Amino acid sequence: MTEPVSRALPSRARVVVVGGGVGGTSVAYHLALAGERDVVLVDRDELTSGSTFHSAGLVGQLRSDPTLTAMNRYSVELYRSLQQGQNPPGWVECGSIRLASTQERWEEIRRQDGWAASSGLEMALISAAEAQELFPLMATDGVVGACFLPTDGQVDPSQLTYSLAAGARAMGVRIHPHTRVLGIDTEGEGLRRRVTRVRTDKGDVECELVVDCGGMFAAEIARMVGVRVPIVPMSHQYVVTEAMFEHRETPLPSLRDPDNLVYYRQEVDGLVMGGYERQSLPWTASSSTYDRIPADFNGRLLQPDLDRFAEISENAAIRVPSIADVGIRTFINGPEGFTPDNEFCLGPTDVAGFFVAAGYCAHGIAGAGGIGKVMAEWVLDGAPPMDLWHMDVRRFGVSYRSPSYTLARTVENYESYYDIRYPAHERQAGRPLRTSPAYSWHTGHGASFGEKSGWERVNHYESNSDVDDEGWRARGWAGRHWAPAVVAEHRATRESAAIFDESSFAKIEVSGPDAARLMQWVCDNDVARGTGSVTYTQALNARGGIECDFTVTQLDSALFLVVTGTAFANHDASWLRTQARALDADVRIADVTGAWACFGLWGPRARDILAPLTPQDLGNDAFPFLAMRETTVGDVPVRMVRVTFVGELGWEVYCPTEYGAALWRALWEAGAAHGMVAGGYRAIDSLRLEKGYRVWGADIDPAHTPYEAGLGFCVRLDKPGGFLGRDALAAQKEAGVAQRLVCLVLDDRSQVALGNEPVRVVQDDGTAGPVVSRVTSGGLGYTLGVSIAFVYLPVAHAVPGTRLEVGVFGEWVGATVTKDPLYDPRSERVRA
After folding, report:
1. How confident is the model over 646-696, as pLDDT tens digits?
2. Catalytic residue ranges
3. Long-range contacts, 792-801 (Cβ 8 Å, 24+)
4. CA distance 736 to 777
5. What is the reported pTM?
């Protein structure tokens, strides 16, 4: 299908969308739908000529992530609506089946049933025989069970793209195929650098905003402005068979058998069949070069690779035996853009006005409607409408500038596409990369490492394991990748002391003449209280939602240190830069994570361990909670910060990285006489659950405010000059919140909620009521001996004593709303 060419390329537009696939046309359509009509879309060739035209067209809605599920559900609503219009996209609401060919996969499907319930998505657990009734071509051998989602479907990717393009054009968007982007101009430096012009072979377009929807070409486009988008084009193959069945009045549902790595959908009277093989093949990218897609690779496919497809073909015949006896009508081998973590690349970059919407990882057809909607709101409003950090292009740190690291992580991701993702599973590619100065000590003392943002982080020490603690192992998935050492490390922190390596925590310096003005505007708390002050605070969006959650230490009048989670360095620094740009603030914002080692020493014996090592008075009067002092520990110059994330007395001790090994050694030797142990992040998580400390991205996010999250104590509505989001919070405080984050204790300690489980009320007569929410995070509290979960509830139910039920792998477990925090509610131990 050839897209009619719009009139001559205009010399100016507010927004230029680069890329005419399903993503670019969806973004353009939704920009216009939101009222922004001054939009130009350009594509190097015909619309759909990148990856869209050869996509398989499956649309599945349910994901482990409720945000992506909501985006996919919107896609289905949109495709239904378009199907009734003048330019139908070929939407077929045939439903989908997902098979479990192992007991482990059946557990996963039961967990997914809970996700569906918490998302309000219709889904039924069915038997192998029932699955066969819906998809008669399948064999039931080895099938444990299945699920059926009746509102899933399939769509013609090219028709969908042209439908969206027609809708966009009808609302005023100008679409220009056969218009190749040659460069993107910017002006300004540092925080003030922004896009000004897109240069093409048909002329230049001055603009304020550029949205890179280039699909597998997106990385190349982004390099024009010095932005790294870690996308690797991967060869993805499927076939279209000859006729396999007679005409059907109702279409076959799509069928996925992840244990056999294959998927199927109906194509006229045959099947589309493909999968994700264990021996993948990247295309154009290598370990030493970025992707360089040939300039003339438009509307083209790669040569079939029959040897590599053999694994998929053999597995396909196990589940659909008749497929082995029919011919192949078409063999598709097309490159698809994959990311290192199988999540989209969306959102703004550090170049003002330059946005990205790419990296769809072969599920962009399902997500395209939702992608267009959230991107339009992000571009026009300056903030996403929901928590999209796990899809934010800025989540990838400087490590992904490396072609070899990007390739290794992406290949690993592709080859494990259908693997079951158990809690606490750790990826292996590209490790070790970033290590603490105490790394050698950890490896020599039995550390079991996890990885986050490239950092090797201690999960626990096998040397701390005690067989007597095996009784704490939870049932099901929560007991996988668990170690009894976590109990010992938790217990030591509560009873004596433990030391934790937190060097991976992100550290961001904000300095300059306007540093205090910026930080006061960004933070809801008062963070400019004098040198040595430490403040726990949130950074909010205009709606009052929590964009960041961190501590701020004032080092002097024009220098502040932000400490945040390991994975949030880029996110929080980018948020600060965005607000600095909006304020035209004269500041420097620098990530100094690698420059400082950080060790947390907490527990009732913490002061006894540290006192002999430092000339600093550690008493409450000289060194109160939420204070910083510069001093020495042993031979090492340090910053000591009295904070906690475990609910015990203690300090975080920072030193320049070159002193880190010596500082760890000094602390370890001093703690020996006091029964101190070394601990890992798994213990920290259980400790923080008991104390009710929130985690950004799980318990708190941009969709929830401090008042809803139980963090109203941080809000200073009367702060001179106000702060971003203040008006929204003032209005909410006046009106009252509709929901609150509360703590639940489950009746059965062996049942552990992992996140996203449905929560329903229990009626006065003891019968089950409706699902009202989902779990944000959960785990075991080893001091209190209970299974803990956090959940947002309507205020009518957010009352201690309220009885609820949590759906854990298909079983409804009783739970009670309790006072929060469960442990040391007056924080007497923290301030001891």
Report:
1. 999 999 999 999 999 999 999 999 999 999 999 999 999 999 999 999 999
2. 236, 263, 549
3. 792/704, 792/708, 792/739, 792/740, 792/741, 792/742, 793/739, 793/740, 793/742, 793/759, 793/817, 794/738, 794/739, 795/736, 795/737, 795/738, 795/739, 795/740, 797/761, 797/772, 798/739, 798/740, 798/742
4. 25
5. 0.94
